[in-house]
Write a structure and sequence with these properties.
There is one protein chain. The chain has helices at 111-115, 325-332; strands at 19-23, 47-48, 51-52, 57-58, 68-86, 97-103, 120-127, 133-137, 144-152, 156-157, 159-166, 177-179, 188-192, 216-217, 227-245, 256-262, 276-283, 289-293, 299-307, 311-312, 314-321. With 340 residues, the chain is mainly beta. The strands form 5 sheets. Strands 12, 13, 15, 16, 17, 18, 19 and 21 form an 8-stranded antiparallel β-sheet that branches.
Length: 340
């Protein structure tokens, strides 16, 4: 799969708070597995009371007309750009076809409200291949909070990935103060020098890293350079507090770090001279949550340079949205949901 939208966050991931709200059948394997962030696993000839154990969602063999379905609450609402229906390890028991619908319901709707929702097609009824990550482009442009995976007529799906652009609900930050880098607010990694041991996307995921493996770590440098990552912020904003967290990185934390920023409304980020210093070259300690008070002009992108290499658990950039941005978000979340 080479679709550009695969680089966008998985809005359905359990890491962002995604979850399965309802399903009509999960006799062989629980629908909750659909949103597990890790790749699906499989151990042959591992049997439980209901048969072979699958890391996915599997329904019974249908003996009547109809189809099976599961409804997923997205962890982060947004505009869906692509969907992956992953049938990994399902070979003789995958659905021959699937479709995906989306809706927007504010608040915390339950199964009854979702059953009455105005569902919009995201992926039409389409053929699936077994033991395959099946990608589908999505052209609908409205904000989506929930998706409904329908399999025709039955079978097993390992994972459902819903890639898109986060559109944060401004009810979460009524005064415009938020973590501008956080993926669940719309932040996104757009550049990185090295991701040998860990993805830089983990830097901006929710919560604290539980292990070193949940952060970003580069290989050992043997030259005079340094490693870096660029984050496009959720929205233009003024950063007031930066947190550079090296938790769990003890013998491999960076020796120092710098932060620079640019406002792409005024300058081209590709122009190296357009970047302005936000945090000067500052020593870092191993296994420490460092916090630095900043006073920046509005920026849209931030570059974290670590010197010379090593690992970081999290990057937090707390601040205020620039003038007018909060009103724009409120307009996006107007009371009448956009049609797909």
């Amino acid at each position: 799969m080479t679709a550009a939208w695969l680089a966008l966050p998985d809005l359905a991931s359990r890491r962002l708070g995604g979850g399965v709200i309802d399903t009509n059948d999960e006799l062989f394997a629980a629908a909750d597995n659909l949103v597990t962030p890790e790749p699906p696993g499989f151990t042959p000839r591992t049997f439980g009371p209901k048969g072979q154990v699958y890391d996915g969602w599997e329904t019974r063999r249908r003996r009547s007309p109809g189809e099976d379905w599961a409804i997923v609450r997205l962890g982060a609402a947004g505009r869906v750009r692509g969907v992956v229906v992953d049938t990994s390890h399902f070979t003789g028991n995958f659905p021959p076809e699937a479709s995906v619908l989306g809706c927007r319901l504010d608040g915390h709707p339950g199964p009854d409200a979702l059953a009455e929702a105005d569902w919009v097609p995201l992926v039409p009824r389409s053929p699936l291949a077994g033991d395959t990550a099946n990608p589908f482009d999505v052209s609908a442009d409205g904000i989506v909070t929930h998706v409904k995976l329908v399999i025709h007529p039955d079978g097993g799906v390992a994972r459902l990935r819903v890639h898109g652009e986060v559109v944060p609900d401004p009810i979460r930050f009524p005064d415009g103060w938020l973590d501008l880098a956080a993926v669940d607010n719309g932040g996104r990694v757009v550049g990185c020098s090295d991701l040998f041991y860990g993805s830089p996307n983990q830097l901006i995921e929710p919560g604290l890293a539980r292990t070193m493996g949940e952060g970003w770590e580069t290989r050992r440098r043997r030259d005079a350079g340094n490693d870096w990552v660029v984050v496009r912020l959720a929205a233009p904003g003024r950063i007031r507090l930066a947190e550079l967290d090296t938790s769990h990185f003890k013998g491999n934390a960076p020796g120092a770090a710098t932060l620079r920023g640019v406002d792409d409304r005024k300058a081209d980020p590709a122009d190296e001279s357009a970047w302005r210093e936000l945090l000067p070259h500052t020593p870092l300690r191993p296994d420490t949550r460092h916090r630095f008070e900043l006073r920046t002009d509005p920026v849209t992108h931030v570059r974290l340079d670590i010197h010379p290499d090593g690992g970081m658990a999290r990057l937090r950039l707390h601040g205020h949205l620039d003038d007018g941005i909060l009103d724009q978000l409120r307009a996006s979340w107007s009371p009448v949901p956009p049609s797909g």
